Amino acid sequence: MSEGAESAARRTADRWDWAATPLGPVDQWPARLTAAWDLVVDSVVPMALLCGPQLLLLYNDAFADLLGHRHPKSFARPAREVLGRVWSDPLVGRPFEATMHWGTSFLQEAAEIDVQPLSDRDEEHLATFVRAGSPVRDEDGRVLAVLHLAVDTTATVGRSRAVARLATSLAVAVTVDDVCKVVLREAMVAFDALSVTFCLPSPGPSGWRMARRHRVEELSPDEERLPLIWSEVTPDLAALVDEVTAGSDLHVQPGGETVAMPLREGEVTAALVIHRQASAVPRDVLGMAAPFRELVAEALRRAVVYDAERSTAELLQRTLLPPNLPQSDQVSIAARYEPVSEGTVAGGDFYDSFFLPDGRLALVIGDVAGRGVMAATVMGQVRAAIRGAALTDPSPATVMAALDRVVTDLNDLWPASMPLGTTRARPGMSFGGELFVTLLYGAIDPSTGDLQVASAGHPPPALLAGRESRADGIPRGRLMSMDVGPPLGIPGERPVARVRLTVGDMLLAYTDGLLERRGISLEHSEAQLVAVLGAIPPSSPRRVAQFVVDAMLETSGQEDDCAVLAVGRSPAGYRRVAIVVPPLPESVRAAREWARRELDDWAISESDQHTVITGISELITNSVLHAGTESHLSMDLDSGVLTVTVSDSGNRGEPLLTGADPMAVRGRGLSLVKAISDAFGVHRTSAGTTVWFEVEVQPSMAPPVSIRLA
């Protein structure tokens, strides 16, 4: 063999007992085979020779890296034995056999191969290669071996695919959070990053806020859906971002450890900072940065506009909905409002509940047809009119008659230049009968469970039977049988239906956005709702409202805003306590100690107490760090289910967290609460954000104590 730079492969070959192999002593090899081996062993790219009928595998140091844990015992062994299951891949073994038998060459420019047996991983490990094979012939033309080149292009292909995924994902990313999540995920692959930091302007002292993701993080689908946590950047990072965004060029730190790129489109300015292992940045990475930046900057510009419009619309919508619902010792009530994911306009869905002068609890849910500021404004006027009419005379007939007049007047007074549900403009004219409002109005006596309810064009509610009712043969879930009258503004009879809710029973009212889908009949959606109700375990109204909305929208999607109002009879042992928690670090311990005292009074077991207090600690910590306002903490015990609710009035997502741990992972606290509880949910109201969880505990045998909140 020729003289050259000493390599591990050459040293192995020099010590090898070739006489014991089918190839025989090295000095008896054909000259062309010797020349081919010299070419392989001196090459810096992965190359190998597959020699003779057995395809004995001889390879250089670079190829040894591809073999992983199978090197060095693979040297001079049949390739079929070395590669094992990988050899059976049609892209691997078959081309070598064809070259050896027929003398044909092959070239595979993007061969995707599962190399799991070589990588010693449990999961599938796909790698992409440029592979080529050529015959090595003797003077008589007989094929002696196959000269093989294999270059792993997995990283390069992965980067190209990351940009393609980026473009696809950004096309459907509508909010700033959505865009940032996509960029953090795809930049990790595209730039082979250890961590990626997305920086946006902030009113804070540093001028920038950041969201970060690390390679070590493995987020579950639930965690991926959580909002990002934004924190103030450190002074060093702020200085780097200021420098980068002052220009337009890509910043690459000497050694390649940091790559920072400005993102600018119109009025929007941002920066992406990538931290890598110290190594020269590959040329294909630098070439990919330009299209990457353009895609992200344009998507971010759209998202900033969308967020501004949607924030205004949602604020209007939620401000017109009640921030809190009344509770009593005998009746508990909860609501859920879910705006449609597309669009940036408010809707006309609404709900309400309030105590009437005679002690009954009014239940209201309705829908103003159309969307936008107009629908939301009409909704607010109708909701206010309902309260005024019901507090004067709560009978359904009187309330409906009063609202007919209100809707008729609104229809006559509002100009068509602000049309509802239509784009036709008719200056100087009214809605012309196009104002369409549906309403379900009822009143329940908390002491007896007697409920009166009437519908003005609104879907009938559903009933959820408790244990006592099911013992009498009543199904778990069913739609309430009642006559539906004409919508508001159209005079007509709206018969009053009567039903009695026993302890454990629940009434579920909803708007048509929960059921109506294009291409799906209403009967099918109603049957689906009944099936969902039948699958709900014994639960509180809050959990039922969330369960129903999530199950219905997950199955068939969402095409319109929807609202759900759930009210249930509480057992005699119903308990409720609440406190206000200041936004101070020491408040976490104070909240735990308060909860422990209350749970001791309720005779809750030690193990259940541990679960509840752990959850409270995480939620209060989350609120203190990321909301920055006082929190309202409440605990409810109802039929062996303990519900904890933490509400704040902060604006989550803003840069309120300073001095953040750079390795902090968004959602770990909430994920823990979800893992230890039996039910978990997050929703926004006009007052802020509410997070709640439920734990099934043994019912307390102590005398009932209740606190009614305003």
From TrEMBL:
Transmembrane segments: none annotated. Coiled coil: none annotated. One of its GO terms (molecular function) is phosphatase activity. InterPro entries: Bact_Sigma-Reg (IPR052016), HATPase_C_sf (IPR036890), HATPase_dom (IPR003594), PPM-type-like_dom_sf (IPR036457), PPM-type_phosphatase-like_dom (IPR001932). Pfam families: HATPase_c_2, SpoIIE. Residues 328-569 form the PPM-type phosphatase domain. Keywords: Hydrolase. PANTHER family: STAGE II SPORULATION PROTEIN E (PTHR43156:SF2), STAGE II SPORULATION PROTEIN E-RELATED (PTHR43156). This is Serine/threonine-protein phosphatase. It comes from Knoellia koreensis.
